[in-house]
Amino acid sequence: MLPCSPQHASQPAVGQSGWETFPHDADIGVRGYGATCAEAFAMAALALVSVAVDPEGVRCLEGRKIACQADDPVVLLVDWLNAIIVEISAGRLIFGRFRVAIQDGRLDGEAWGEPIDIVRHHPAAEPKGATFTEARVAREPEGRWVAQCVVDV
Amino acid sequence: MDPSLLKREDRCRWVIPPTGAMRVRGVIYADRDLILGMDDKVRVQLSNVASLPGIVGDAVAMPDAHWGYGFPIGGVAAFDADAGGVICAGGVGFDISCGVRLLVSELSAAHARPRRGELAEALFRGVPAGLGSEGAITLDDIDMTAMLNGGARWAVERGWGRPEDLPRIEEGGAMGGAMPEAVSEQARRRQRREMGTLGSGNHYLEVQEVTEIFDEAVAAGYGLERGRVVVSIHCGSRGLGHQIGTEFMREMLLAAPGFGLHLPDRELACAPIRSELGTRYLGAMRAAVNCALANREIVAHLTRQVFARMFERGRLSLLFDVSHNTCKVESHVVAGERRRLHVHRKGATRALAGGHPDLPEDLRPYGQPVLIGGSMAVGSYVLVGTPEAERAAFASACHGAGRAMSRHEALRRFGGRQIQDHLASEGIVVKSPSTRGIAEEAPDAYKNLDAVVLAAEMAGLARRVARLSPFACVKG
């Protein structure tokens, strides 16, 4: 069993990796920060999980490999998050740890987690689709990467 | 929203005159207070919709409008394929054919209310709800294709519904023109074990009492009387619809430059109706509509099983099943000319007036039931379609209260357990797998349903028939 490393950093300070969610009328925004674009993507995935459950309460019992391809980094982010949503929805899995590598528009990711346990995880809103609303992948002036979008729940 | 940015035409009609790329007007139906509380993004999004090719009439927003994906939620727009009109995945929404159905019982609330705790528990156990829940039905490829073509008819044929329900469902329970072959493997995979599940978010199953009648004649025609127990079910096409919406939104976005489409907003990704992509989306969307119709039929079947076990006179008859996230080909008169149009309703309910040939014979004298969802505390409304709605909004009305605050803000202000306890003290039992989910759906996170419905009535979009108040709720 892989331990789920503590990656949670709500309202992270500049220079740190971390994730947070942000308000949207009916749905919810997810945002990841990191020293690299790939790290920001991995953090955004944790923010996505947090829409439903506390990622820190997820045990990393099994892994899934996820690959996406898109020239536009925003499209790549939305594809990555939607691929995770498919694993949650169809695979009945929830994840607590992600690793991402990005090169030339190709994303190779890994997600670790466990089967959803309604009694133990108490899942709230189900993330049903990552959207292009408020979608942004950018390097901020201080050097930190941010990856964000609104998720339909 | 700043009302000074709009031109007020009457008490509940606010106009955005065409400027820039707008091809038609934007019209928002709401009273002044609702306009003041409305996000300005509704105005921006409606103006963007008004700029899409082939749009006819007005781009319309309902009194419950709020910020959506490309289209405002509560948006209605009609496009003429012969005039280069487009089909827009965001104009249908991700939860394709999300909708409401209302079942009417023979029970009095006086009889059922005292057993509300037991009833809520039985429904919570009987109808899978929330993330991670699974239906008892697993679809193989053959069943999946049959379901995507057959909708509620398929469910009835399989014994998960009643034949007499079908005329009371839009499209007779199955939308023609579905193309199961246009539904991806990923979408099918997401749906394989989700038939007969409620989902999460704002979806619900509520046992309610008819507490107020506004139109005695129509209510009698609908079988509604004060004190009668009814059941409202709000859910959609589950994972399959979302996957179709997601995949086609992406494909339309990347294909837009090839169609010469300039998108003011990525979420307005669209394709000409008369294109291979447009045809394929419409076919997949119609398959998702059938998935939603089948899903609500099965959820109703599970609900009926619970009522039959608990009550001697537990029969539940379907009043109506209507979707509020769709695109349908309809005939409407625009500027004196009857045209065949692709009418997008995103968070808006079709509202046919009495006499319309598409209504089942026994409802035709009255008009279509327009089912409006509210919240766990305030309940719902039944309205009826009007001839004015045809002229004003392609025969459409509002669909719910609309959110007044984000899920973030609701979580900051409310506790799920606290809401459950408060509602219990008011005679409403709420069951959910998640107290956080209850907090996010707090009744105070929604707009004033009475104000929304009254504005719809004053605008002539629909007329009030009955008010329904919940006493047992299942939330996903």
TrEMBL record, chain A:
Keyword Oxidoreductase: no
Listed InterPro entries: Archease, Archease_dom, Archease_dom_sf
Protein name in the entry: Archease
Keyword Signal assigned: no
Record-annotated membrane-spanning stretches: none
Any one GO BP annotation for this protein: tRNA processing
Domain called Archease: residue spans: 19-153
GO molecular function, one term: metal ion binding
The family this protein is said to belong to: Belongs to the archease family.
Keywords assigned: Calcium, Metal-binding, tRNA processing
Coiled-coil positions: none
Highest rank taxon of the organism: Bacteria
UniProtKB/TrEMBL annotation, chain B:
Enzyme Commission (EC) number: 6.5.1.-
Active-site feature positions: 399
Coiled-coil ranges from the UniProt annotation: none
Binding residue positions for Mn(2+) 1: 95, 203
UniProt binding sites for GMP: 202-206, 324-325, 373-376, 380, 399-402, 475
GO biological-process terms attached to the record: RNA processing; RNA repair
Molecular function GO labels: GTP binding; metal ion binding; RNA ligase (ATP) activity; RNA ligase (GTP) activity
Broad class of enzyme this protein falls into: ligase
Binding site for Mn(2+) 2: 234, 324
Cofactor(s) the record lists: Mn(2+)
The record's free-text note on cofactor binding: Binds 2 manganese ions per subunit.
UniProt catalytic activity: a 3'-end 3'-phospho-ribonucleotide-RNA + a 5'-end dephospho-ribonucleoside-RNA + GTP = a ribonucleotidyl-ribonucleotide-RNA + GMP + diphosphate; a 3'-end 2',3'-cyclophospho-ribonucleotide-RNA + a 5'-end dephospho-ribonucleoside-RNA + GTP + H2O = a ribonucleotidyl-ribonucleotide-RNA + GMP + diphosphate + H(+)
Keywords linked to the UniProt accession: GTP-binding, Ligase, Manganese, Metal-binding, Nucleotide-binding, RNA repair
Pfam families in the record: RtcB
Self-association and partners: Monomer.
Family: Belongs to the RtcB family.
Protein name: tRNA-splicing ligase RtcB
Organism from which the protein derives: Alsobacter soli
